[in-house]
C-alpha cells in the first residue's frame, strides 16, 4: 500500500507526464473496466449477491488520484474503485474478494466482507486498535450506502485540517497532520446532490472555509431517473454559482467544470483545484460532466430499459477510455498495437485476480464442507440413522458452491435427528458446531465496539471527591468546571454547536470557555444538526476529540440517520479498522412543548447500536460520564436533564478526573416491597413518589440505570428483584418504548422473571408529545401520582386487605 509520495504526486501539468505515466493510467483504467465487466458476470453466475461498479468513471478518477497526496482523505461513494486502485489502496484481488464477501481482513481489508462491493476504506488502526501514522498514508474513510451520507463526514475530515493548521497546540500531533496541509476529497453522483445532506455540507464548508474538494460524477441519471427530475437547470454547478468566491482572499467556493472524457483537462483541473484547496483552505467543487455508465446502475437492472437509443449511442461514443485512447493516438503517445496489447493484458490480469480471489474465498469453505461430510458419514455409521441423515448428507456433498450457512444449517438439523443418542460421532459433530459458531461470530458479529486499551471497559473508575465545605451551586456550574478541566488537560478536545460559543450554550455549561480557550476550541455553528454531527465524525477519525452539541433532544432526529449509518457501525463495518470517538451532547425529557420535551429513547436505542447512550439524572453524573468518554475511544450520546441546570449540586474537588463506569446502575433508595427501574428526570419524580408510598406502608427500591447502552452489565436489577419480587419500569418515552427495552433486558436477558411474584409493569408517557404548559406536562408524562398509583395497584393485587382500593 502507498505510504509516501511518489513521482506521480509532484508534477503540475499533463505535459510533465512521461509516456510511462500515460500508459500506466491507460492500463489501470482498463484493468478497472475489465474488473467491472467481470464483476457483473460473477453476480449473474451466482458467485456474488449484488454488484455495483465504477465503469465510465475511470479517467476522472485517475486524474483525481494524481492530485491526492499522502495525508489526504477520501469520503466517497461506491463507484470509486479506479481511484482506490490508482492511489495504491486497493488491489484487483481485494476488489473481487469484497465482491464475494470474503470475511477475512487480510483478503478484504476494507470491510472484511461486511459491506457490499464498492465500499472502500483504508485501515487506520493497528492490531491493538491504536491510530497509525495517518499523516504518511493515503486515507479513505469507510464508505456507506445511503446516498449523500458521506457528505457530513467529509465536512469533518476537512475541518480537522483547519484546526491542525490554525491551532498551534495541535502541531505536536504529527501522526495525524502536517500543519493542516491535507485535503479531504469527496465524491458523489449527480443525482445524490439532490439530498439535503449535500446542500447542508456545501453550505457548512463555505462558512467554515475548509479544504474540502467535492467531485460530482455527472452521468445524467439517478438509476432510471434523468437529471430533469433531479436538479434545477439539470446542472448542479450552475445552481451553485452563488457559492463562487469573488476573488482570492474572499469567502466562498471555487467551482470547476470539466468533461469526464477529457484526460488532459481533468489532469489540469484537479491539479489546480487541489492546489487552491490545499494552500488556501478554500472549498472546491469539481463538476465532472458528460460521464457515462456503460453497464447501467447495477446488476439489479439494465439501462436499456430507460435510456434511449440515441443516449446509448452517445454514451458509447463518449466512453472515457475510448476518448483516452483517441487522445493518446492523436498526441502520438502510443501506437494502436501498444494500446491493443495493454487492453488484452488488462483482461488477463483481471482474470488472474478474479480466479485467485475466488479460490482463496471458496477453498477454505470447501475444506470445511468436506470435514462436515466426513463427520456426518461417521455419524450415520455409528447411529444407524442412515436413511434420514442420508437426505442431509447428499445435498451438501454435491453442492458445487456451498456457503458456511449451508454447513451449519445441515449440522444443526442432523443433531436434531440424533438428539438423546450417545456416540463419539455425535460429540465430534457437536464440537465442530461449537467451534464453527465461535469462528463465525468473529467473522460476522465482532467489533461492534473498540477492543483497544482505550475501550470503555478499560477506563479505571475514579470516585468523585467532595470537600467538606463544598458549596451548593447551580448544577450547570459542575459541567462548566468539568469541561474547563478537560479542555486544559487535552488540546485535542473541542466543542461545537448552536450557541455553544459566545453565550456558552443556552444553559451556560460552556460559559466563559470560548473567551478562555479561543474560538477554535469552543465554536458556534449554524442551525445544521446533521453536519454538526458529521463535523465531529470526520474530526474524530483524524485523532481529535469533538463534543458536538445538539441543542435539544427532539432535534436529534435531524442527525439520527448519520449517527445510525456512519459512526455507530464504523468499528463493526471495518472490523476494527477505523474508529471515531465522537461525543454527542444533548438535553431532553422535561420542559414544555411538543418540540422541547421529547424523550424518543426507543428510536435512539434502535438506531445507534455501536454507540453508548448515557442518561444521567443530574449534572454531576453527566460530568463523570464526560470524563470517562473523553478518555475512551468509543462514541456516545449523553442526554442531560433539561430541567436540571438550575438545581443545586456540589462540585467535586476532582471534577475533571473522576469517572463513572458505563453499564453500572445506582441504587438511589433501598427497599423491600418493589423495585422501580428508571433514569434521567424521572429519578426525582420516582423518589418523591417513594416518600409518599412510605406513608402508606410501601417501601420501594429505586434504581437509576444511568446508561441504557450498555445496560446493567452486572445484573444489579436482577439482584434487586430477587429480594423484592416485584418491578415497575418507568420513563418518559412512548408506550412500548424504552420501558419495554428495560423489561426485556431484565426479564429476558437477566432471566429475572424467575423472581417475580407479581406481573411486571411499565409506566411510560402518552403516545404523543406533551402539549405546551405545565398541565400538558402533567397529563402527558408520568407524574408523582401516576408512580404512586402504579405501585399501589401492584401491591393491592398482592395484598388486597392491607392495601384497599383507592378509587
TrEMBL record:
Which cofactor does this sequence's record say it needs?
A: thiamine diphosphate
Q: Which Pfam families match?
A: E1_dh, Transket_pyr, Transketolase_C
Q: Give the UniProt keywords, A-Z.
A: Oxidoreductase, Thiamine pyrophosphate
Cross-referenced SMART domains:
Transket_pyr
Q: So which domain of life are we looking at?
A: Bacteria
The record's section on CDD domains has: TPP_E1_PDC_ADC_BCADC
Residue ranges of the Transketolase-like pyrimidine-binding domain? 473-647
Q: What does this protein do?
A: E1 component of the 2-oxoglutarate dehydrogenase (OGDH) complex which catalyzes the decarboxylation of 2-oxoglutarate, the first step in the conversion of 2-oxoglutarate to succinyl-CoA and CO(2).
Q: What name does UniProt use for this protein?
A: Transketolase
Organism listed in the record? Hymenobacter glacieicola
